[in-house]
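Need a sequence for this fold. Nothing fancy.
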């Protein structure tokens, strides 16, 4: 008898059993990977959404800054008119200056409200990041 005919095949049964377990491990790992890919995609979508909110918020801040600068220029002009009015001592122009002042003050209240909205939006965006850090 040659060596081939005396070969004990019982160890093959054990090998097949190990292979079966290995295949099950591989299937689980692939399922884990698929789950992770999906989770990563959702996280990236969330990050992109927050990033878009930040860009929009930045644009709103820039617009508010421009409005404030324009308001500052208008206030300086109004103060020049008041100063000229005081120097002249005349009543002429007083009513117009008062109307201008009232308009400026109303604008200031609008800007204050916009600033509060920007502050709330900023806090909401920051809170979203804090929530992400908790997960």
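Here you go.
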């Amino acid at each position: 008898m040659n060596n081939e005919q005396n070969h004990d095949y019982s160890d093959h049964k054990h090998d097949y059993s190990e292979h079966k377990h290995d295949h099950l491990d591989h299937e689980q790992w692939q399922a884990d990977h698929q789950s992770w890919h999906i989770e990563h995609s959702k996280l990236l979508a969330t990050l992109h959404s927050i990033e878009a909110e930040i860009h929009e918020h930045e644009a709103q801040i820039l617009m508010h800054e421009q409005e404030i600068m324009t308001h500052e220029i208008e206030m300086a002009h109004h103060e020049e008119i008041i100063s000229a009015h005081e120097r002249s001592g005349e009543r002429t122009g007083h009513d117009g200056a008062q109307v201008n002042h009232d308009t400026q003050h109303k604008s200031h209240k609008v800007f204050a409200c916009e600033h509060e909205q920007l502050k709330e939006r900023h806090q909401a965006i920051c809170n979203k990041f804090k929530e992400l850090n908790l997960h």
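For context: The CA atoms of residues 67 and 111 lie 8 Å apart.
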